[in-house]
Design goal:
By secondary structure, the protein is α+β, with helices and mostly antiparallel strands. Helices cover 26% and strands 35% of the residues.
Length: 175
């Protein structure tokens, strides 16, 4: 059975539920989250999306992302998906949220009220290969440089987060 996403207004007030694919076909605003895992060296864990993802396959992005389930808090959702995609658990804290809209070549559109969360972890992940093709640690400054050189190798939402919130992401994190 297809999962539902939580439809929200521009104030993040829940206004309904809709099947995930339908929400992406209709470009309806819905709740989502993006998790960033850092280590004590100030590096961010990136994942390369699996080849069979319905959009943005094999592109590099933040550690994990997905959609909250009805009745699930942002932190609960982030921890659940971190375990499902990357195979580990970490404490998370929500940093900020923002709305973005990104159309894709396949006719789908991400229109999300995205909650960005941060956690720390030192070990290698145990990736779920149906979700993740590869992973790596990178310094935020190196990510920013690589996005400028190779923008087509990164997901749209990841580029938006880095453009708008780079200073926020590196604040109080070792460089």
């Amino acid at each position: 059975m297809e999962e539902n996403v939580i439809l929200v207004d521009e104030n993040n007030v829940q206004i309904g539920l809709m099947p995930k694919m339908e929400a992406h076909e209709k470009a309806v605003l819905h709740r989502a989250f993006s998790v960033f895992i850092m280590n004590n060296n100030g590096e961010t864990m990136l994942q390369q999306r699996a080849a069979d993802k319905y959009h943005s396959p094999l592109l590099w992005t933040n550690t994990c992302c997905s959609h909250q389930r009805d009745g699930e808090s942002n932190i609960e959702a982030g921890k659940r998906r971190l375990q499902e995609e990357m195979g580990f658990q970490a404490d998370l804290k929500e940093l900020f949220s923002f709305i973005y809209k990104a159309p894709f070549d396949n006719g789908l559109t991400e229109h999300e009220y995205d909650h960005v969360m941060l956690g720390f972890y030192e070990d290698d992940p145990d990736i779920n290969e149906s979700e993740v093709a590869d992973w790596k640690w990178m310094k935020p400054s190196s990510i920013k440089e690589d996005i400028l050189k190779n923008p087509n190798e990164y997901t749209e939402w990841f580029k938006i987060i880095f453009e708008k919130f780079y200073e926020h992401l590196i604040k109080d994190v070792p460089q």
